[in-house]
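This section describes the prediction task in plain terms. A model, or a person checking by hand, is given the sequence of a single protein chain and must write out its three-dimensional structure as a string of tokens. No templates, partner chains or ligands are provided. The sample shown here is typical of the held-out split.
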Amino acid sequence: MDIEILNLNIQQFIEDNIGKDISKLALQKNPFPELDWILILTQIAAKSKAKTKLPLWFITPNIIYFSKIAVEQASSEKTAKHKASIISGRTLIDLTGGFGVDDYYFSTHFDTVVHCEINTELSAVVRHNFEQLQVNNIDCITGDSTKVLQGYNSSFDWIYIDPSRRNETKGKVFMLKDCTPNVPALLDFYFEYSKNILIKTAPLLDISAGLSELKNVKRVHIVAVENEVKELLWEIEKGYMDTIEILTINNTKAGDEKFNFTLEADQKSAQFGLPNKFLYEPNSAIMKSGGFDQVGLRFNLNKLHPHSHLYTAAEWTDFPGRIFQIEKVISYQKSAMKEWLENKKANLTTRNFPDSVESIRKKWKINEGGSQYCFFTTNQNNDKIVLICTKIK
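The expected answer:
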């Protein structure tokens, strides 16, 4: 950690260049030859990223940014606040401390938090930043998390882990065993130090795959912000063998949309029906959860098709997702398309439909935008249909 980066003139230069193109800045002459130019550029790039993702860090004087990647990989303040709200206790140890955003918010719900980070320089940066943020109940320890845990004679109320993927060549499918640390292999070891474990994973992890690798899962939280799933949280309790609860939340400007259900072997199936007056589209957190039958039953809605994941009803009801009024239902046929949509402007969505939005737009010369929403989907009779709608929510 180079403390010279906190020089007032350098900090002002960083502030003046927030949001600027780093590749263009890199071509300029370093105005501060006493300090590495790459370090200064790194601060600009990382702080620019923090402006919306980590506003508290952004406005706090003398924060040092380790790297842009460290900020990108860190939890946002919104998701960190939610994460901290679901657990509490006396002590927590974070085995994969990183930039420390989660631990800052955990510290508001725990008496003592231990930030464990194997990278010595990053650990020093985080320790410095916690001082600037005026938080004094977080201990920063540098070292391998396994060895750090073995150095403790006492247990913790909670262990928190955010494992990172080791192998990026596996594409969009990955398993927890492919991450560092290998949580499935280390679970019994972790249970020696805490009976409660919270694991954060990226939304790429399939829930059924995670459940197959982990044991004693009590709850799975699916966290979305503005309808984009940001992370999965796995609550594990030593010896727990009961029903698993799935909790979804979508944080929006209008408020939080929540929907919870339990995984049960004898879960009832959803009811099906043809399009009625209203169309309901679940938010991304519910879509990720796989609770398609549960959400239909909870809100007394009919599914259009087993694989469409769109719902309908004659009555309006408040719903965790988008709501539309169906103005017209047409068959996906040439005559109907030419009459109602060709050369028009509309917002298109496909659900359980053979053609993509791009190919539909090109084929029927439909421009993007406007107040009309069209869902290309399949009904319970396996007919290809188009729902022409007006958005209500």
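For orientation: The chain is about 30% helix and 30% strand.
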